[in-house]
User: Fold this.
Amino acid sequence: MPSYSSLTDRDAVEAAIAEFSSLGRELFLLKYGFPDANESFVIVGAGRYDTRALFASAYGHQHGEPLASRQVAAGLKGAAGQLGALGYVVTTPDDAKSADMFPTFDAALARFPIPVENLPAIRDFLVNRNYREFFIPASRAYIGAKPRSGKPPHLIGRGYIAYREEDGRPQGIELPVRVSAIVEALSPIRGGSSASGARAPRAAAEPRAPRLVKVERQDSFCPTCFMVLPATGVCANCD
Assistant:
């Protein structure tokens, strides 16, 4: 029976992100049969992509047929865990409620495996910035770095850095290697895959040089936990 670790091709995830951006969130969720619910998100620059629907679409791009919503769980043993293992920054509602704190990045790094090929670019990003502490959230999907200025934390994933400039503009840095060790104890995909005649997974791409991703401001998000803000502008997680 296929498990969430069956999604191994980051190009398939990028294709799903491009499709999400092209259709818009509402039509993307409708196309793949997912509810409009903020469970967890993949963060890429200013974009926030629903984890379960993104996984279902990416699975289809890699294996030939997307998964149904009933087959995809969002938790750390499901879609969120595997997308985090592939290098993406994933946030969940519990991230702001429970986290392990560390005085230095190296102390946090001892508890969070990052491909060694990505560490030079990460250290270059950190070296001229002043942080008061670091944390690993409940999702275990990134290391958070809290600036001494009190600005929103910078999120350092296994293959991506999501942060905001001093003026609030969201930015992202794609790191050379996106694939990391597969998360342990991933659950089987519910009901298996309905795909028949699926094509073999494509070979992983060669490591790429870090690339600064230029983005535009979109919807409003909580500056602390990065969840989508309701019309009131008050974050339900942080209030």
